[in-house]
Structures are given as C-alpha cells and as structure tokens.
Design goal:
It is built from 14 helices and 10 strands. The chain has 412 residues and is α+β, with helices and mostly antiparallel strands.
Length: 412
C-alpha cells in the first residue's frame, strides 16, 4: 500500500500531484488563514493542499461539506490508518497505545462511547457545578491576592480545567505540571518527533501505573468506574490519555481567548454583566469564531465518495478546514463579524455526528462559570498589554494564547 501521495510523487497516468502548501498561521486571531477562505470561495469549496508532512490531501472548507463527511461512514476517523492526514512524516506517537474512541469507526465505536457517555450527561455535569464554582472562586481569590499584572493563563485559564478534569478522572492534581508540559509537547508543531514520542511514552507510563493502582484499590471516579464495569485496563488507559489532554488544553485556551475578546468589547461585556443569560450565546459565538481544534474533524476516505461535485477516492486523506467552515457566509449571516448574541450552535467546533465531543457539556459549563464569576468579581479587569501583541499559539495544533497579562483596580 502507498502510505500517502507526496507533492512530487507520480500518480495514475504518470502525472504528478502538485498542490499549494497548507497555511496554518492565522493573520488575525478571529479569522481563518487567507488560503482557507480562498478555497472556500472557489466554485466547489474543495481543493488539494500539501500538508507539512508532504502528504497531499483534499481540503473541505464549507460547513455543509464537512457536516456531510462527518456523518458518512465512507470516511474513517482511524488515526492509525497510513493515509490519515497528518502534519509530520513520522508515524503518530499515539500508536504506542490502543486506539481511543476518537479513532474508532463503527461497529467498534458505539460500545466504546456508550461505556463512557454517561459520565458527561447534562445531569452529571450539573452535579459538578458547585465544585467547579468553588475551584473558580479559589483561583480568583489567589489572583486578587497576588501581584499585578497577573498572567491569566497561569492564574486561572490552565488551573481551573486542569483541576476539574483531574478530579473527574481521579488523577492527582499535584502532578499537573507533568501532564501539562507533556500535553504541550504533544500539541506543538515545533517539538521534534523524538520529543513527541518521549512525551507520549512518559505520560502513558504514568497513567498505566495510576490505572494499575486503581484496579487494585477501586475509587469512585471516572477511571475507577470504567474499571469496575469490567473494561480492559488498556482501553481505560487510552481513554484516560485522551480525556486528560483534551479535558484541560481546549477549555484553558477558550478561557483565555474569551476573556481577551470580551475585554476588547466593553459595551457587550457590560450587557453580559447585567444579564447572565447572555453568557451561553456568547460562548457559542466564541467557539465558532476561534474553532481552536480546527483540523480535528479530518478523515480518510475508505470508499470512493463524491462531495460538492468532487470525487474523493478510497484511501485519500481529507482535511477539514473547520475554521473556514465556521466562517462560511452561506451558513452564518455576517460570518466574519463577532456577534456575542448570535447563539448559533450549528458550528463544528465540537465536531459533528458520532464523534461529536464527549466533553462539550462540561466545557460550556466551565466557560460559563469562569466568565460570569470573573467579570462579576473583578469589574475593572483589563489587559495589561495590547491584544494585538499577545503571543497567540500559531505554533500549536490547538489554538490559544501562551500568556495573557491582566491587571485591575482596587475597589473604592
């Protein structure tokens, strides 16, 4: 089997595949790269691009096409498939473990998701609300008692979702520096292949030891309950790995981006303070606008499929330009504008179809509690440096901000 086509590799008929290099840097935090918009505005909205790995992939850029792909069983989410879109030439380091639920196709996917979906119901999330509120209050207390300016990322954005997912899984929070640094290495575009593999190995070994301890002494936490249900420890390990990384990196970045966006829009922030019912619609708009995991909806075709008048052959990689799709003018009125009262939930920031994000209810609740509490308790909060000088994460697979200096006035 040919692993994947490179831009210089001859294809059927002897012709070579040539495709422009994929842009991954955003000119503006609020907008997809210009090249992604250009692809979306072509007649089909579909084009071939060359990934940093040298792989040539089809790029889908319209909301209707990506949603269609994500509900079509002829596209696989198996990230260990040799033709799955990837950004580096080496085999993915995740092959050191069994596939997790995001890598499974039917019929294996259904039972695996059913085994854990009960941990993320709206009802169970509501039961976590008081504890999350306590965590947020404690970290705001500590930030207020500390020096100014403070780094919002270190003071609030990272520790809140990290502590929440640790308590939910049953992972000791005292080890958060370890798994946060390893998560950053895995999601970085600049860490070497050896560095990524080492990060996976060390994090896998850490979780494997933790799961063995829980198997010997069961605990009432998500991992303990998975083991109590009789699930294979190796499958629980893959699940723990996925949830630990996804459960803090994504929400942490959305907290930082959301706070910056609202501080830059004082009139809308004032309206939100006066009416907390505005918070959830604002969160949906922030999710749409930033689409921080913009390539997470990618797939590989396992049969020939026609989308938008373009035939994608079996074995061809398909990259979802989800950020471009979430700015699709055919799906969202004035799509390039940030409208915190828009409230549209037809975006694909959490995916779509059977692989839609398990933790979306938790993420929304954490964001709501953080925003409502932070802006109520520190009404004079402001950026300590201009928003356009902040270090945005164009070097990572999950978009965000490395550091957000903030300051405030003491109450009169």
């Amino acid at each position: 089997m040919v692993l994947f086509r490179l831009a210089s590799t001859a294809t059927d008929g002897g012709s070579s595949v040539t495709a422009p290099a994929l842009q991954t840097t955003r000119r503006c935090p609020y907008a997809p790269p210009d090249e992604h918009t250009r692809i979306r505005d072509t007649e089909s909205g579909i084009s071939q691009v060359t990934l940093p790995s040298g792989q040539v992939a089809w790029a889908l850029s319209r909301l209707e096409h990506i949603r269609a792909m994500l509900t079509d069983p002829r596209f696989s989410s198996d990230r260990q498939h040799p033709n799955f879109p990837r950004f580096t030439r080496e085999q993915p380091a995740f092959d050191l473990m069994r596939p997790s639920i995001i890598q499974l196709d039917p019929p294996e996917h259904g039972p695996a998701r059913k085994a854990v979906v009960g941990e993320f119901t709206v009802r169970r999330m509501a039961g976590l609300r008081p504890r999350i509120q306590q965590i947020v209050n404690e970290h705001i207390d500590a930030m207020l008692a500390g020096p100014r300016p403070a780094d919002l990322v270190r003071a609030l954005s990272l520790p809140v979702p990290s502590l929440v997912i640790c308590e939910q899984l049953g992972v000791p929070y005292r080890d958060h520096d370890f798994f946060q640094s390893h998560s950053s290495a895995l999601l970085s575009r600049v860490v070497t292949a050896e560095g990524r593999r080492q990060a996976v190995t060390e994090l896998r070994d850490y979780l494997k030891e933790l799961i063995a301890e829980k198997a010997a002494d069961p605990a009432d936490d998500l991992l303990g309950r998975q083991l109590a249900q009789g699930n294979d420890p190796e499958d629980v390990l893959s699940l723990a790995f996925l949830l630990l990384i996804a459960g803090h990196e994504t929400t942490a970045n959305m907290i930082s981006l959301g706070v910056v966006t609202m501080l830059e829009r004082p009139d809308e922030l004032a309206a939100l303070r006066e009416d907390p019912a505005r918070t959830l619609p604002a969160i949906e708009e922030l999710l749409r606008v930033y689409t921080i995991a913009e390539f997470a909806n990618s797939r590989v075709a396992v049969e020939d499929v026609e989308i938008g008048g373009v035939t994608i052959r079996a074995g061809e990689p398909v990259l979802a330009l989800s950020n471009a799709a979430n700015h699709d003018p055919s799906a969202f009125d004035e799509a390039e504008e940030i409208k915190l009262d828009r409230g549209a939930r037809n975006h694909v920031a959490f995916g779509f179809g059977i692989h839609q994000c398990l933790g979306q209810n938790l993420a929304r609740m954490e964001l709501q509690i953080v925003f409502d509490t932070l802006f109520r308790r520190i009404p004079t909060l402001r950026l300590a440096t201009p928003a356009d000088t902040l270090p945005y994460k164009n070097d990572a697979l999950i978009y965000g901000i490395h550091e957000v200096p903030v300051t405030w006035e003491d109450p009169a």
